[in-house]
Design brief:
There is one protein chain. The protein is an alpha+beta fold and about 170 residues long. It has 3 helices and 6 strands; from the N terminus they run H-H-E-E-H-E-E-E-E. The protein has a 6-stranded mixed sheet with strand order 2-1-6-5-4-3. The radius of gyration is 17 Å and the shape is globular.
Length: about 170
Amino acid sequence: MSLPLNISAASLQARVSDFLISEAELLDNRELETWIGLFDQPAQYRVLPLQRHLVEGEPHDSLFIIADDYGRLRERVDSLLSRHTWMETPPSRTRRLVSNVRIKSRDGEQLTIKSNFVVHQFRNQQTWYFVGEATHVLHDSPRGLRILKRDIRLDHETISAQRRISIIL
């Protein structure tokens, strides 16, 4: 038995999935200037603590590994592009996999999206990986989908094997 297809919902799902895959491609290609252009201000980019350290409740109840507003995110991008970031000299290569894209809610033009990810990072003949769930709050504007908030929740119990987060997850 097949379910009736809601063309509008399927179209929105396809747009959101394409957006997240395009965002991953920009990050993998180090097109950070174009990537930061996907954000509307005010914007947030946060990397939440490792899963075992999370308390039940809202992310704002937690400490963050990274908690950037738009200005700090702009500085992070400028630093990575300047090639003066010692942890990224030479620059890492990354490969991102985005899956399980779900539209969790829609409130007018604002969408809350969850997806799973794996980021493989390669540098100096070493490999690290980051696994987790991303929550994007997007504005569905006449200019297309725009990022208002991007929260990354890592699934690792520790990041000691990675030693640091020197890339944009």
